[in-house]
Design a protein that fits this description.
Layout lengths: L2 H9 L4 E6 L3 E6 L2 E7 L8 E4 L2 H7 L5 E3 L8 E4 L7 H18 L2 H15 L6
Antiparallel strand pairs: 1-2, 2-3, 3-4, 4-6, 5-6
């Protein structure tokens, strides 16, 4: 996986958005809450950060090329030194899990609003 594939995958999640923050970080969000960050600057030590469960955090930071994410490790975010630190399949599963963790922590009203928008799109429009 590379940055473009990670971007496309993150944006494939329902209601996911992206914006550039903090200079050169491409941030992926759901309802204004971050679930992944890619670094656009090649001089950075890390290429991708994302949220995970406490158990997965402890497991991942034991692997070569994966560190606690600067400034957000206390919230169980990890940072990858390269996209090759994990297989594409595992990275996709972890990015989806990050999205799901953040979605689950959204206020109930925000979750309901997003679900309503999702359902409204699937309902076919009546022809006149």
């Amino acid at each position: 996986m590379d940055i473009e594939q990670a971007r496309a995958y993150c944006l494939s999640f329902p209601h996911a958005t992206e914006n550039v923050q903090w200079g050169n970080d491409l941030v992926f969000k759901i309802a204004g809450k971050m679930f992944a960050v890619t670094v656009l600057e090649s001089a950075s030590k890390y290429c991708l950060s994302f949220k995970c469960t406490e158990e997965k955090f402890a497991e991942l930071i034991e692997q070569e090329g994966i560190d606690p994410a600067p400034y957000s490790a206390r919230y169980h975010w990890v940072a990858l030194e390269s996209f090759g630190a994990l297989s594409e399949k595992e990275l996709k599963a972890l990015l989806r899990n990050s999205y799901d963790l953040v979605f689950a922590k959204l206020p109930k009203k925000a979750r309901v609003d997003l679900e309503d928008k999702k359902t409204a799109r699937k309902t076919p429009r009546k022809r006149r």
